[in-house]
Design a protein that fits this description.
- The complex is a heterodimer of chains A (about 300) and B (about 325).
- Chain A has about 300 residues and is an all-alpha fold.
- A two-stranded antiparallel sheet of chain A has the order 1-2.
- The radius of gyration of chain A is 19 Å and the shape is globular.
- Chain B is mainly alpha-helical and about 325 residues long.
- Chain B has a single domain, classed as ABC transporter involved in vitamin B12 uptake, BtuC, CATH 1.10.3470.
- Chain B is about 75% helix and about 0% strand.
- Chain B has 14 helices and two strands, in the order H-H-H-H-H-H-H-E-E-H-H-H-H-H-H-H.
- Chain B has a two-stranded antiparallel sheet.
- Chain B is globular.
- The two termini of chain B are about 35 Å apart.
- Classes of the chains: A mainly alpha (about 300), B mainly alpha (about 325).
Chain lengths: ~300, ~325
Amino acid sequence: MGNMFARSIQRYRGVIATLVLINIIFSFASEYYMTMYNIMNILDHSAISIILSVGMVFVLATGGIDLSIGSTLAFTGIVAAQLFKMQVFWPAALVLAVLVGMGIGFTNGWFITHYRLQPFIVTLAMLSIVRGAALILSKGSPIVGMPESFLQVFSGPRILGNGIFIALLVAAGAAFIIEKTAYGRYIRAIGGGEEAAYVCGIRTNRITRSVYIIAGALATVSSFLFMAGMNAAEPIAGLTTEWMEAIAAPIIGGNSLDGGRAYILGAVIGVLILSCIRSGLNMMGVGQHYQQIAIGAVIICAVLIDSLRKDK
Amino acid sequence: MRKVQQFFQTSVYSGPVLAIIIFGVALALYSPHFLQVSNFVNISNQIAINIIIAVGMTILIISGGIDLSVGANVALTGVLVTLYFRGAPGGGSVLIGIAIGITCGALLGLINGLIVSVLKAPPFIATLGTSGVFRGIALVLSGGRPLMGVNEGFIRVFSGFVGRVPLQFIIALGIVLVGFITLNHLKIGRIAQATGGNERCVRTSGIRVERYKVILYVITGVLAAIGGMVLTSMMAVAEPIAGQFYELDAVAVVVMGGTLMQGGKGTVIGTLLGAVLLGIVRNGLNIIGVPANYQQLFVGLIILIAVVAGNRNKDRATQ
């Protein structure tokens, strides 16, 4: 246990240092930054991105990518909301929505493995298809009004809703799977070299499909948090920032687009870094537009640090 | 007849050509509006920018790179050029405006190229980052609002007509021609293909891969800037949020045209056909009267089908 802790510190020291540094800078820059209220606010806003990023870590570990999770978030939210409207018992509606999300993930995985297509282009097409489906099913407008007990479970009464706890639970479960199970080793093996993994007896196609199913399921779970936060399901949810952050955060946290690595904690810290920068810049009165430049610059810095690390 | 048969059995273009014929015939039978000249003018107008951007993207993807910042590049170029026209006395000069646009595109491409080749960052995520930066700069410079006051002469240069053919489509075809020659007959094109096939091999042969990679990103940047200028002149206004998802559209038609995402193989003509196919599909959905919400779904399906169909022709030995 102590060994694992030491290894985590070693692996994540760069991102942890960055996170601490950012927080120190912002707490000097604005007196309102290091307040309980703001910290809870940051955590609350990170929950959705954390869940999406965790799903993305699985996909990235196999050397794939999933551009469609933002659309999946929107579509499964609409599905759940429509089921709510039909007076379906809400937990059952959520289960059905998760199944739909897994179905989208399976479709991605099936096209990728069966036709040997590039994940980028398959999930790009799926991005368009699923977004269209979300717009059709909702007739283009948000569906307002969620069941009261659903809101209580996924949002809670305080500023710091239950979302972040659900997100951390998901992250902890994912970290356990990746660190402690054979499945976790398999997905990294596929990212390291699919052919070698296949020769070693790993059912590469099946495992590859499964990571897209996980990404789809987690996109659905994040859509529940989105709906609880807005008290509505939006067909245009997750249009740009969500999925871009879900790809950027794991990379910031040390994961690689080439696959072979699966750092859940890194992805979580990556999300927190982006959220802290957003919040800090907000506190300093920096406009949205400058924030976009800053976030882009952070992503570039993260990949540069990563490529420097690889050179050694 | 045998030649036709041979074409469909062997040519890399057979997939998109077949799809264009099928969709074309179906639409012609469905609606009398499809085969009218005005409709073709319409289609060529709509696909010109996509073609211009996708030609650069094709060569880049063949070399093993990718540029996701072209959409933001389109917006930033439009904003910069329009800011010049607004600031310069008497509306400014068209030539200087174009020079500013091309310089801007080249500079943005240079930034991408240096980050990717010299600093060795993975292109996908690096250009995702620069995309955020470029878009942010466009928003800051424009104050987040659309900018009016585009020079009249500039509008005529990029969105006029020659006879009934839109000028921007002629520009796009010219760029396809230049791209074709660059890829197949110039040294940089062959190096791009070789680099996408096996970069280490090219490097050991003593070729400075880094330098060529930077040039490819600069070319892509310049083409995106031309796309941005065409869009600005078409709209007669510069939008800081213009060009969103243009990068995804460009990658989609590149792959529909048979270019491999992993690099090494691909054609500019295929990309042109891919863009025409996507244009006809979008146009057809409009003619049939498919609601906008359904169009996105169908466009995604077409991309998927085109990619799967294109893939079937290739040997499956790579499994």
